[in-house]
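hey m, so remember when u said the tokens were messed up on ur end? i reran from scratch. heres the input so u can diff it against urs
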Amino acid sequence: MKLSGNPWKCDCEALKMLQFVVDKSNYIEDSDLMKCQEQNIELPMVLLKTDVCSSYFKTLAGSLLGLVLLIFIFLYFKKSISMWLYERNLCLRLISRPEPQVDIDLKIDGFLAFSHVDLQLVGEYVEKLERGPREYRLCFYQRDWLVGQSIPACILNSINDSKRVIILMTNNFINSSWGLFEFRSAIRASSMDKDKRLIVILYPGVDLDKLDSELKLYMKFNTYLRRDDPQFWRKLMFAMPHKPIQCEQPAITGGAAIEEN
């Protein structure tokens, strides 16, 4: 029996044929002349034996490994990639967390909760968030609460009307009874309303051991921002409600001030 002179295909799919040639080579008169035709290169079939699948599986394994590596790299840098796209107003629909379609219920983008002793910290948030390119609408008690209203009611109303509650966690804040009331109220509200989100900003030198067990547990099992993080403003902007960059700058209005007990 002679089988040479044909353009044999020697790949993993032809493994049975190759095995037949190897096993029956004594019965094939021209088995040593049978050649594989691959990409205009001729190779003696008997020299290949049955290891033609090894290169196929190596290629497949390499491709899968490369794919897994790409997925790992994407997941590892997903936050950075998303922030980069958001900063450039790109692919907002893909990277943005769904927000309420109607702003009637949640009129405020962010409620700033802080100790009255730390009032000097508020200025940079007004500058970066309200006067920034996305023109977030903020609320804080020295400016936006009406004189004469109940403080607990003002706190709860501000939390209920806001998409984000931003806690400026300093030692002054955790030593403040009103601050801890705001913290607990914000935790409760964010756990009950999927459209509301709590953003805790931890300032350097804060002693978290002064928190009670409930609040300490929250800090242990939830993410927060560190004010001394070099990427702090990028991360804060990304944690805020996602909205396109605006062109005009908003006016800042005055308001009432209160003191903590």
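this time it looks ok to me. The longest strand covers residues 162-169. if urs says something different then somethings off w ur setup not the seq
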